[in-house]
Design brief:
It comes from Streptomyces plumbiresistens. InterPro entries: ArsR-like_HTH, HTH_ArsR_DNA-bd_dom, HTH_MetalResp_TranReg, WH-like_DNA-bd_sf, WH_DNA-bd_sf. It holds the Pfam family HTH_5. With about 110 residues, the protein is α+β, with helices and mostly antiparallel strands. The protein has one domain: Winged helix-like DNA-binding domain superfamily/Winged helix DNA-binding domain (Arc Repressor Mutant, subunit A), CATH 1.10.10. The chain is about 65% helix and about 15% strand. It has 6 helices and 3 strands, in the order ααβααββαα. Strands 1-3-2 form a 3-stranded antiparallel beta sheet. The relative contact order is 0.14.
Length: about 110
């Protein structure tokens, strides 16, 4: 599997987003999903095997971080995709606030 195929899976993209700017343990990552630890572990293995995350072991704990340099142009694509989603979310929130304000003024 190549890196593009790896990020085609939504949970793997979410894992990458979680470890984009910070290092998290496998348990911390798994706690954010509604699937088993084993399922998250498999996703982490795919991400590691495709060079999208780095692994640091400290005793029995495993810590993951996105390997943005190793991703090459894929890093720019993911960053742009997440920024677009955040912009859309912000626009929807502002529209909802405006609609609530308009309803409040009408009463």
């Amino acid at each position: 599997m190549d890196a593009v195929q790896a990020v085609a899976e939504p949970r793997r993209r979410e894992i990458l987003r979680l470890v984009w700017d910070t290092e998290l343990s496998a348990g911390e990552i798994a706690d954010r999903f509604d699937v088993t630890f084993g399922a998250v572990s498999q996703h982490l293995k795919v991400l590691r095997d495709t060079g999208l995350v780095t692994l640091r072991q400290d005793g029995k704990k495993r810590f993951y971080r996105a390997d943005r340099e190793g991703m090459g142009p894929l890093a720019d694509y993911l960053r742009a995709m997440w920024a677009t989603k955040l912009d859309t979310l912000a626009e929807l929130a502002e529209a909802a606030e405006r609609a609530d304000g308009a309803e409040g003024n009408a009463s």
